[in-house]
Amino acid sequence: MSHLRLLPSRLGAQATRLLATWGIPERSWCSRSSGTPAAFPSNPGEGGSSYMEAMYSAWLANPKSVHKSWDSFFQKASQEALHATPEGRPMPSSLTTTTKLVEDHLAVQSLIRAYQIRGHHVAQLDPLGILDADLDSFVPSDLITTIDKLAFYDLQEADLDKEFQLPTTTFIGGSESTLSLREIIRRLESTYCQHIGLEFMFINDVEQCQWIRQKFETPGVMQFSIEEKRTLLARLVRSMRFEDFLARKWSSEKRFGLEGCEVMIPALKTIIDKSSEMGIENVILGMPHRWGRLNVLANVIRKDLEQIFCQFDPKLEAADEGSGDVKYHLGMYHERINRVTNRNITLSLVANPSHLEAVDPVVQGKTKAEQFYRGDAQGRKVMSILVHGDAAFAGQGVVYETFHLSDLPSYTTNGTVHVVVNNQIGFTTDPRMARSSPYPTDVARVVNAPIFHVNADDPEAVIYVCSVAAEWRNTFNKDVVVDLVCYRRRGHNEMDEPMFTQPLMYKQIHRQVPVLKKYADKLISEGTVTLQEFEEEIAKYDRICEEAYGRSKDKKILHIKHWLDSPWPGFFTVDGEPKSMTCPPTGVSEDVLTHIGTMASSVPLEGFKIHTGLSRILRSRADMTQKRTVDWALAEYMAFGSLLKEGIHVRLSGQDVERGTFSHRHHVLHDQEVDRRTCVPMNHLWPNQAPYTVCNSSLSEYGVLGFELGYAMASPNALVLWEAQFGDFHNTAQCIIDQFISTGQAKWVRHNGIVLLLPHGMEGMGPEHSSARPERFLQMSNDDSDAYPVFTENFDVSQLYDCNWIVVNCSTPASYFHVLRRQILLPFRKPLIIFTPKSLLRHPEAKSSFDQMVSGTSFQRVIPEDGVAARAPGQVRRLIFCTGKVYYDLVKERSSQGLDGQVALTRLEQISPFPFDLIEQEAGRFSSAELVWCQEEHKNMGYYDYISPRFMTILGHTRPIWYVGREPAAAPATGNRNAHLVSLRKFLDTAFDLQAFEGKTF
């Protein structure tokens, strides 16, 4: 080792820098036998000479004791050094030669690494040639020019023709183990610096990095057959001519076309083709309304063109209920044969509002559900594709929230292919003002997703990248991003004037040759197609469009049901006839209740040690079951368990739902002595029950609620619930509530049975942990406050059918039990908003008897007064209507004041749709009583603004309904405990002051 003892310390430092760049862990520097370093420097950047000596010494003693890359390196260096003198022994002059050889090999390997890490920064990605995709014109100093590169690595021009050993971390050599430096640089430039820019070296999995390197570095890998090129050209023709046809026929209509990124259609079709080839049977897509949504419907999903064209007819009549939506928000579901693989494939494009990325978690939830129902735990049959815009991908937080669900056990869809239409502008915002990261795709790095940037004017590069992306997803079951760097030919929409704000860009765009012509000229010049064949392909598709346009004129009525993205075949009919608008009783037999209560009180696994505090809770459940009573948690357990027995899958998701935010639920038990050993007793209730999924979510509302909405979309035969940690936390998911849940049926004829559990109650907890904002949900309810309804048979069910969602605030565990079961037993699906309690979870009076839950019982929309006041209604002076927890405050106060016979209390369990019929009965029963609405919320919040006009409609404006509660306020609750108690005392005093409203008019 004497000749290596003379190596300069800078060589050791360069070697250790190379190791760090390679990502070789420190354990790889150690002896394989002992696993301990031999006098290795603690700081690899210093003491490099002793480090190199120790490494070489170890290698001389045993070549297998060092990493295999060092073994190869030392063999090569030693052979060349020994051949440097006639005697075959290294001399002082040959020591310099050896040193130079070592330095040069390390330098070349560093150079290779530099291209792999930073080559994308100099790739030619912008089709316009005027912008840098990474927002930075700086070129890394080690990649500028050949001369600069050589100087950076202490190499000379004379070294360009020297042969160098290739490391195992590159595939540029193909079957060759050595290449000249000139050829190494040429191949690296070809792989990393042309129309494809690769970001993957941040991935901390060597196998995955090697896989990507092999796919892109192997010489000649990007080759296409004549047939593949002709197919690509035909798909480009369809993509571009579809947009041209719409532009000719409806020149003044917005359509948010694809011009500038026409390659996206063959890109998506390639992903689907490759995935189908690898066994995928169901692909669920989500995309914004921009970037050619109609084109995707026509040429990817293969929706009938006449169905699309007839949407442009302004005289079209709507045959379906609801408001409908603009054509470029609608979804689609289609089963067809994939002509490339000759396999059946189901494609669905999920309806999406103008909130560009809001559909992302919805698609993931629907995908997860489809995988669950197929038993596709590994995502081998069902997958998702998400199309994004560059500005929205970087700017909207739901993208990040969705990425962070990608690897969570209860939320993973086993990989998504993300396609970013990077037209380098956000409406009128320059990308340099729209993001702080180099690329719009940098958010994907948080989950180690490889990112493939590609120039969208190079169709073959795009198709190859998309094929690799699909193969990656179906090999590693991980997310992957394809960044199509393109441009937007017509501005934000077809009516926009982009020259106002991007004059230089659009001057270049106006000169830009369309990608179809570029690619057609290329294929014609190389003899793949003839000009005549190309023109015939165009004429053929134009003829298809014209014929469909003619047929579209015969479609005078719009059926939105042709645009369903999640059909539920067979759900709405029985033997071909529409289901009866009735709901059977929601109670169950006492045997079932007892069995569930017993199981909820026990641990079904032997040797499972639970927390002592939980033992007390289980004993309490057993005691309640024996006494035929339930509290809130046990009622929920019985609702879920009885549905599982009936084959209904139940899924509960949200922050802390396994235990319950208020430590009341405990659906997942944790062994106190074995880490991560858990038990879900609910899954051990019945031999052939449906599965129960309960999962703590990430700390996300927007993304997780969207996910659960998508999950509920897949099947009507499941109870899917999302629980907010506190009710007001739903406000960070308001987009999902407003755009999908409240309006989903009206816009997209999309029934959905999602249940929102929102803890609510004024209990002195401050403004952020009190109100679930019931006023917001009630304001969006679509029942008419001024329309006196006709009380037909089954009015309660028909009223539910006509509403957009159901809003309840249950005051008893039995009500909660019944409303959950009713959600499944109804002949249709509506979203259900439940304001759930906090203090009532353990309130001694908030208990229900089995008698209120057994067979024959049902949900009570209104719970009437049934005490002393009910026996002499004519003597009742005041009838107080209320909802939820405040009822128990009122009962206690009434009793303390001795007014049981003079004041009646009636509870609204269902607030919307408003129970007109039952309220009319109660008001008539106490016809001489003064009517009061009492709520604990402030007057400008809560329920009063919703219930007041509806009471007036029922009463014909002949009797007032007086308000009792807190005064109007800006914040939903006080943060001062004493102020809370003072305001509570004040409105309770008013509620039972029988002279409070004397002399007042309404």
Main attributes?
1002 residues, alpha/beta, Rossmann fold, 4 domains, 7-stranded mixed β-sheet, globular, disordered N terminus
Subunit arrangement of the protein:
single chain
CATH topology assignment of the largest domain: Rossmann fold
Percentage of residues in helical conformation: 25-40%
Number of strands: 30
Span between N and C termini?
A: 104 Å
Biggest sheet features: 8 strands, mixed
Total helices: the number is 33
Structural class by sheet pairing and helices: alpha/beta
Radius of gyration: 35 Å
Contiguous runs where pLDDT drops below 50 for at least 5 residues:
1-50, 84-93
Domain unit count: 4
Strand content: 5-15%
User: What is the CATH C-level name of the largest domain?
Assistant: Alpha Beta
Q: From the 3D coordinates, which CATH architecture of the largest domain would you assign?
A: 3-Layer(aba) Sandwich
The CATH superfamily of the largest domain turns out to be: Thiamin diphosphate (ThDP)-binding fold, Pyr/PP domains
Large-scale geometry: globular
Mean pLDDT: 88
